[in-house]
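Re: the request from the purification team.
They wanted to know what the chain is likely to look like in 3D before they choose a buffer screen. I agreed to run a prediction and write the result into the notebook, where they can find it.
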Amino acid sequence: MTQDNEQGGHDNREHNHGHDHGHKKTFTIYVEGIPHEWPKTEISYKEVVSLVPDYKDNPDVTYSVTYERGHGNKPEGTLSPGGTVKVKEGMIFNVSDTGQS
């Protein structure tokens, strides 16, 4: 029994070390100046606006979402409703209410 526990523990540590290294990466992104840990390689328009502190899930309100410090081929741009963008460490998102209601 001791032998199995010892071997099992060793195998698990090795397995977890390699597994965690590849799958636990998070990115720090900034939405309206507030840092957020983001666990995925992409983020959608809806996900960005939902991170805004005073976000209201109102279908009559449209938000303008712009970003900076993105990936090399498109370091800045606009994220439209239904769109996604690849996330990069330190990326900045600015969200403004367009005033439609």
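For the purification team: Confidence is low (pLDDT under 50) at residues 2-22.
Please add any questions underneath this entry.
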